[in-house]
Amino acid sequence: MTYGSWQSSKWLRHTREVQFTGERALELALDRQAAVVAYVIGNDTTLIAPERRARLALSRDLDSLANLTRDNPSQESEVELIRIAVSAWDSSFTDPVLHARDSIDRMRIGRHAHSGMTTFAPVRARIEDFLQDEAELYAGRVLRNSAWREGEVVVLLEAIFVVVALARMRRQLTRGSGVAASSQGWERDSRRHRLARRTLRAAPCAHCSRDRCHRARGSGVGTAGEQRDPQRRGR
Question: Could you tell me the pTM of the whole model?
Answer without folding.
Answer: 0.60
